[in-house]
Here is the input.
Amino acid sequence: MFKLKIDTTRQQEFIEITNQIEKLIKESKTKDGICVIHCPHTTAGLLINEDADPAVRKDILGQLEKLIPQNNNYLHLEGNSHAHIKSSLLSSNLTLIIENFNLVLGRWQGIYFCEFDGPREREVWVKTMQT
Amino acid sequence: MFKLKIDTTRQQEFIEITNQIEKLIKESKTKDGICVIHCPHTTAGLLINEDADPAVRKDILGQLEKLIPQNNNYLHLEGNSHAHIKSSLLSSNLTLIIENFNLVLGRWQGIYFCEFDGPREREVWVKTMQT
Amino acid sequence: MFKLKIDTTRQQEFIEITNQIEKLIKESKTKDGICVIHCPHTTAGLLINEDADPAVRKDILGQLEKLIPQNNNYLHLEGNSHAHIKSSLLSSNLTLIIENFNLVLGRWQGIYFCEFDGPREREVWVKTMQT
Here is the structure.
């Protein structure tokens, strides 16, 4: 298992990690198989979506905030219930395909670490499986 | 990796692909293992849910539209931010169990390709791993 | 494939299954690999989130109920459309990492079976893959 360190810089933001994941896959020398990406945090998540126009990520974050506002009379007293709920609606783990030593993604897809309770030092864990 | 072609015919619809996935698994001759299904698009997603009453899919699509309306002052100017957001809340990949050459699903479960920005020519990528 | 039985006791609740999953992984004698957890139902789902303060789960359930109310003029006549929609927004399957015979989770993470249409006798299916 590889551990990727991610330092987030804002309270809520999406940080692209596609290049770091691809680099880890190269280093793993997995020719053909799959790659499991796990987010070990409960106020952050993972997302695959468009990596071209940054407005797309802003719209996703903005709509999540409308649906799950930060202040909303939550029971949990740490003030970050919204972050737990948002990360519950995204993914805590992804399973991606590796072919010919490469991560296989669609033309417009990027992998994002989604911070909802930052800034913090975060990690993403990655494991490859050879066919 | 197998590529499954899907032609969607509406702007938003759920198309059942269970039979095609099962056929690919048979062709792969994977006796026992797992199957990763990847949606390479950023305005469509994957979902496992009821395949009996079609009203269930209409209710899921209808509630997603209420929560994430098509017109909502989004920043992304292509007019399909709602589709990026909806697909972010569903899955871009699924990992399913294969036993005795068969996909293992619950009695009422079907696999759906969820189009949110159609009609388009789409694909789903499938990879099997033998234990 | 292992089958884990879960008896839910309320209409909607999150039941922690981390210990049972860990026990199954020990029994499988998988030293290093992955574990696929599949929910075979269409009105229940799976979630990884905080296992410390129970208020977090109440907030997640409460906000899901605000966004997807039980009574909402749905088309499906069985009265459980809300449960299909809620489970669609969570996960029907998870893929987790196994290292040195142990499930690898973050410090605050627990695995939850999320019942939205109980009480019922439910199952979760678990398959491990050795690297």
